[in-house]
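User: For a benchmark we're assembling, each entry needs the component sequences followed by a predicted structure for the full assembly. Here are entry 17's components. Please fill in the structure.
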Amino acid sequence: MKDTDDIAALMADMGSRARAAAKQLAIAPAEAKTRALNAAADRLEAAEAEIVAANAQDMEFGREKGLSPAMLDRLMLDGDRVKAIAGSLRAIAAQEDPVGATLDSWDMPSGLAIERVRTPIGVIGVIYESRPNVTADAGALCLKSGNAVILRGGSESLHSSRAIHACLVQGLADAGLPEDAVQLVPTRDRAAVSEMLAMTDYIDVIVPRGGKGLVGLVQREARVPVFAHLEGIVHIYIDKDADPEAALKVVLNAKTRRTGICGAAECLLIHRDVLKTVGQGVVRALLDAGVEVRGDADVAAIDGVVAAGEDDWGREFLDKIIGARVVDDIDGAMAHISRYGSDHTDCIITDDAETAARFLNEVDSAIVMHNASTQFADGGEFGMGAEIGIATGRLHARGPVGAEQLTSFKYKVRGTGNTRG
Amino acid sequence: MKDTDDIAALMADMGSRARAAAKQLAIAPAEAKTRALNAAADRLEAAEAEIVAANAQDMEFGREKGLSPAMLDRLMLDGDRVKAIAGSLRAIAAQEDPVGATLDSWDMPSGLAIERVRTPIGVIGVIYESRPNVTADAGALCLKSGNAVILRGGSESLHSSRAIHACLVQGLADAGLPEDAVQLVPTRDRAAVSEMLAMTDYIDVIVPRGGKGLVGLVQREARVPVFAHLEGIVHIYIDKDADPEAALKVVLNAKTRRTGICGAAECLLIHRDVLKTVGQGVVRALLDAGVEVRGDADVAAIDGVVAAGEDDWGREFLDKIIGARVVDDIDGAMAHISRYGSDHTDCIITDDAETAARFLNEVDSAIVMHNASTQFADGGEFGMGAEIGIATGRLHARGPVGAEQLTSFKYKVRGTGNTRG
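Assistant: Structure for entry 17:
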């Protein structure tokens, strides 16, 4: 066993092993990566009982720690969930290998043939909370894209993550790939996260998945580049030209289908002209569905709506609660989104093509939607297979991050002895 | 006039003005940006005498400061150079506008139509040394890509940069675009650079162009994401199957055409089997061309070669000097490049297709070349028009950075009232 007291040394050792594994993985054949992922899925299924038992330890720890029922539900693994994780690994295995793909190619008048090809990034650090399935998904997506990964899961899920990680490592071994390609930080010590954020020699990019505590830590301490994953402060704007039926079903679905995901709507903006018609109908339907509606003065005039406080704007409830306010027009809606949004996903409901086009052009969020539920903000629903998260930054990766978004590129230039004049 | 003593306040003011300008610029029509660039070119040509006079002040300051002849040459502007800068602006104006272009689009079984479109990044900070033309090129590329920019040029070129910047601002005004879209830091105080590196609220990415001092400062202090631009420690490997004539002309061109650019070769790696034949011929030709060859023990056996010190490996000479050493095979060459290279540009000379493929696949530099001079490592030679530099990092931008590489993207998702099951 490592001496986990010396976190800096532990992490540096993991980092240098990841770097070495990344070099091998970058040139590994697609077939070997596929084989490793399928073998890991086999191992997971065979180890179902052990994984569920490990998870029981985490659940007990979680209950003692006083985790909310919602968090305990995310943490929990049963036989079906383990099978689903294995299925996800097989799905990633079946995807096309992104590495080496030609992104573009052209010839220059100088006689050079230039080709832009996909390459792995190198070593990825993933810092996440207590969903054990992220261990498998993030590990698999990094492997698929030819990157080594250092996983640092939530402390509550340590036993579950270890059991899943062991299957991934066995899959790597079965396929003759370096076991250090997927490493799991073996300690609950928070200092490991600080180390990861500063390991510029060993980690090329950090993917943080978590709440405000982690986001704050990343903002203060990160020296390694970060694919920002902020909260999903998702807005839906009901325009004056919204179709009443579309508004009703889209908003209800966006808020209530699942309230705990980042694509769930958190704030409703209603054009003043339709407050008494479409707006009121939507608000009543939300109330009937058991949603707490926190409205501004205009919306709060509707029976059953409670008054919103200033801190209800720009807030990710992740619960059966929604903010609601009236705006004078699309500019008012976009100004609200610009001020309170998190550049994740925002939506307009309108039948006016010009208004829709303005919204889609001018709202600068990773995903901008027209007449569709924001619950579609998901890599699977985008056709990307699994996702490691939804990036809210503007650099490199934006929106759902799948295997392809975890790659870089380089230029191959071929000549026949060409010299520059 | 600003109180330039309070650098933090000055920079925050510039930052918030840049942010406001970026919002306008992001939705500005392509035609307005084109008009601004052409108007700036007109203004530059009309102001030729003033610009040359401003440059004379910088040249005097530079001579007093003891700048090298090479640096003074980079700093110097005459009528022809001003005309060339104007020409570069017109060339960027004539390029296709990258913003709003559809990068990909597809339909999902759910009925959603998904489109990936190019967007500006936001606000770009460019920190560079004393080439006044970078003021125009960087300003123009950022404008073309819909980004606001804060330019911080080398202190030696302040008067020249100011004169050029004034023309850019006039161009913006002529086209009805916000003048704050292109701002120049008005002070020589180095504290302005430190501020830029920490302005995460106002700057989305920093493009640093400079020597080791700047690179070190960026590595220590940057909180804003950086498009790394390290030195070009460019290697050429002469394989045992190299064509002698191609080796000779490519190496000579790569080293001697211009020694001061980042694509100039700095280190020659020679397969042991051809040291006495092709290798010796190339080394003698370099010596004949007046290049100082610093060789390992094997190469130093050739008459006229001096012994290399350990610090000659991984060194960017930017001069008529080259390191040269013998390697046992392609693995030895790749190991040397991996240890001493800067992930910029590296080249193999061989007629063996399999060896070439291995080198192009396995060397992880932004540009990997086969049988062509490394002096082609240039945005213009890649067909990108002007470049802001050659990125050596792996994230977002890699290799030559033109207008297209200064953009991000977002997803537009269109439905017809779709809800997720």
